[in-house]
Automatic annotation (TrEMBL):
Cross-referenced InterPro entries: DUF6232
Gene source species: Actinoplanes nipponensis
Pfam families, sorted: DUF6232
Keywords carried by this UniProt record: Membrane, Transmembrane, Transmembrane helix
Name recorded for this polypeptide: Uncharacterized protein
Transmembrane domains' residue ranges: 48-71, 77-103
Keyword Transmembrane helix in annotation: yes
Length: 155
């Protein structure tokens, strides 16, 4: 028996599938397909907020430098404003690294519900319902590999 995918809730092997607490033999799955739900705008808005959080310190730093160069102030004030602007801009680099990690994770999770369906003994059965895009892709590919393996003629 070959194991194509395993996690605490899902098992896909060369002989069968366990999803949603139910077991199915590969031969019972007459047809398998997937569906995507509607986009979660809160996930998209969260990514936008992360993008703004990365850009705002750079913009504030640039604004500080521009103000320092435009206003007619003493040399010490000009240097303090320009230096502060540079420091704020430089502080954005480590912040951006942390925020980019959150953006990567949000894309792994995805912004839609994803479902795997199968026709089992004439009935349509929901095998999996998740909003984790990466996990969905791994499970769906594993299921396809298992079904392809199962369709190979055996001697």
């Amino acid at each position: 028996m070959i194991t194509y995918y395993r996690d605490p809730d899902v098992l896909v092997t060369s002989t069968g599938v366990r999803m949603s607490g139910r077991d199915y033999r590969l031969g019972d799955l007459a047809e398998v397909w997937h569906r995507q739900g509607r986009r979660s705008w809160s996930a998209v808005a969260g990514r936008g907020a992360l993008g703004l959080a990365m850009v705002i310190p750079v913009l504030v730093g640039l604004l500080g430098i521009m103000v320092a160069l435009v206003i007619d102030a003493s040399t010490a004030t000009t240097i303090a404003l320009a230096g502060g602007g540079i420091l704020i801009g430089l502080a954005a680099a480590p912040l951006a690294d942390v925020l980019l990690e959150f953006v990567d994770r949000s894309y792994d999770r995805g912004s839609r519900r994803r479902e795997i369906w199968a026709r089992v003994r004439g009935s349509d059965v929901l095998l999996l319902d998740t909003d984790n895009a990466q996990r969905f892709g791994q499970i769906y590919r594993a299921l396809q590999r298992a079904l392809d393996h199962d369709s190979v003629p055996r001697a």
